[in-house]
């Protein structure tokens, strides 16, 4: 998928609008999963995804041909979500001592304050297991949410996550270990198997 996304972005950069449409179609659901995990609201997540896709189109000339696309896209999406949360007073920067293992102090981490619970109608529309994961994710920091979504929702390999976050694979493994531990503390025992190292596929 990474190579195909890069190919489509390079075609978009050359002015092929159809390639851009295909790129949006290919990444829409994965982008939404991450945005939703960070901001909580379905409507806000959809708007932030649309804003992100518009940003990459406007910035297409700045995309470097030799770079993979997905890490570039991920950073734009993540920063768009963080900006949204900060503007609304829903994110506060954590101290350096509170950063997850292997985190870059220059990037920081954010504690997200989810101010609205899902409405009953939304609860009925969502799968029960997804609801439980979402509620547990909402208790975690931005770094923890991000890496868990990349691994368990988007099913990226350790190598792909390392490329996306621009960290060593060992750092990915360390962050996942600690993020899973914190998430496990908020989950019922019936869902703990989903967080075992072998779930969702092993590192590739």
Short description:
This protein is mostly helical and 204 residues long. Helices cover 60% and strands 3% of the residues. It has 9 helices and 2 strands.
Fold and architecture overview:
This protein is an all-alpha fold and 204 residues long. The chain folds into two domains: 1-88, RNA polymerase sigma factor, region 2, helix turn helix motif (Rna Polymerase Sigma Factor, Chain: A, Orthogonal Bundle), CATH 1.10.1740; 96-204, Arc Repressor Mutant, subunit A, CATH 1.10.10. The chain is built from nine helices and two strands; from the N terminus they run H-H-H-H-E-E-H-H-H-H-H. It has a two-stranded antiparallel sheet. Helix 3 packs across helix 4 and helix 7 (142-153) packs across helix 9 (169-184). The longest helix has 23 residues, at 17-39. The two termini are 14 Å apart.
């Amino acid at each position: 998928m990474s190579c195909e996304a890069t190919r489509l972005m390079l075609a978009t950069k050359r002015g092929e609008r159809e390639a851009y449409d295909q790129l949006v179609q290919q990444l829409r659901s994965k982008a939404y999963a991450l945005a939703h995990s960070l901001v909580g609201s379905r409507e806000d997540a959809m708007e932030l995804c649309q804003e992100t896709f518009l940003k990459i189109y406007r910035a297409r000339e700045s995309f470097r041909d030799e770079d993979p696309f997905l890490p570039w896209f991920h950073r734009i999406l993540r920063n768009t979500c963080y900006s949204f949360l900060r503007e609304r007073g829903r994110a506060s920067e954590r101290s350096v001592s509170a950063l997850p293992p292997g985190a870059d102090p220059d990037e920081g981490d954010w504690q997200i304050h989810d101010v609205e619970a899902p409405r009953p109608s939304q609860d009925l529309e969502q799968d029960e297991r997804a609801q439980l994961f979402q509620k547990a994710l909402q208790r975690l920091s931005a770094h923890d949410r991000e890496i868990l979504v990349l691994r368990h929702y988007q099913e990226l390999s350790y190598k792909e996550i390392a490329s996306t976050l621009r960290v060593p694979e060992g750092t990915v493994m360390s962050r996942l270990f600690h993020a899973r531990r914190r998430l496990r503390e908020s989950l019922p025992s019936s869902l703990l198997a989903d967080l075992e190292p072998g779930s969702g596929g092993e590192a590739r």
